[in-house]
Hints:
By secondary structure, this protein is α/β, with parallel strands linked by helices.
Amino acid sequence: RNFVEEKLGSKYVESTRMDLAKSYEESSPATPVFFILSPGEDPLEDIKTLIISFTGKKLGFTRDSGRFHNISLGQEQEMVAEEALEKAARHRHWVLLHVSNIHLVAKGLRTLEKLLKQYSEESHPDFRVSISAEPAPTPEEHIIPQGMLENSIKITSELLTGMLANLHAVLYSFDQHTLELCTREAEFKSILFSLCYFHTCLAGRLKFGPQGWNGRYPFSARDLAVCVTVLCNYLET
């Protein structure tokens, strides 16, 4: 670490938050984005932020517009995913597929691989697919098709080390639009910073497990986003 920092610079040893917009620029209908999740990580908020504010334009890829499909793969969900992919490929929608219990969708993954290949050749240029899954506990359980992984942009988001890095990362996740949500700007920004600091403290404690706590609760990025919305509502009313 010291050698790399001395010869190449500190930016090569400091943990930074991934720029999802750059990954989007490299993706295509034939190149999905594959999120390899760490415990407590959830890419949904990052993807929603990108969808709403990419290059400062509202692209309209939201659930309300019916152009963003968020599906957790599992029992009896394969057909739902297949229908969403077919619709998305035709009408330039975005699809996010969560693969939580991989052993339940072993057969469906092969079908999914074939569909991704099919729609990569005959779909709208704005069609995008993102997939998220946690690493399997043993090598034998790594059953995600090799072709799916080879054709994807792989992204892993691990918990950063240290309060400062984590605090910078979580503050970076809020864009200017979020900071201007509330008319009571001073109070909103102050309490928002406190929520981010609280989130950072809990993220740093994850390595200790439930020690000293009643249970292991990560206070994920999605929880933080909900709290910010509640904060804005409270201050406005």
